[in-house]
Design goal:
It contains 4 helices and 3 strands, in the order ααβαβαβ. With 103 residues, the chain is mainly α. Strand 1, helix 3 (68-74) and strand 2 form a beta-alpha-beta unit. Residues 11-30 have low confidence and may be disordered.
């Protein structure tokens, strides 16, 4: 019984450290506005505000990692990869809300 509890602690600690690692990686390299966009035009969106917009098809959710393997491990529901986003870029409306995320 104690071995099961010990394994749960290890799994929990590993998950916590992994989450902190990804959070630190995002915090270390804050997103930069696209060329021609001022910092004042970039708005941070909470998950609670983002989800209804994405679910309704009003906003596009993009995993902000260039590495496809990284994206596949943290892909959120209805999100697309950065590569897929770049492929769609020409067809997007200029007023299309786009939400980039990293974990």
């Amino acid at each position: 019984m104690s071995r099961i509890k010990e394994n749960r602690k290890i799994v929990f600690a590993t998950a916590l450290l992994t989450g902190l690692f990804f959070t630190a990686a995002c915090a270390a390299t804050p997103p930069q506005p696209a060329q021609g966009v001022s910092k004042e035009q970039v708005v941070r969106v909470s998950p609670q505000d983002a989800y209804p917009q994405v679910a309704a098809g009003k906003a596009l959710l993009v995993c902000a990692y260039e590495n496809e393997k990284t994206c596949s491990t943290i892909m959120l529901e209805r999100a697309i990869t950065l590569r897929e986003f770049q492929g769609r870029l020409a067809g997007l409306k200029k007023d299309q809300p786009i939400i980039f995320y990293c974990a």
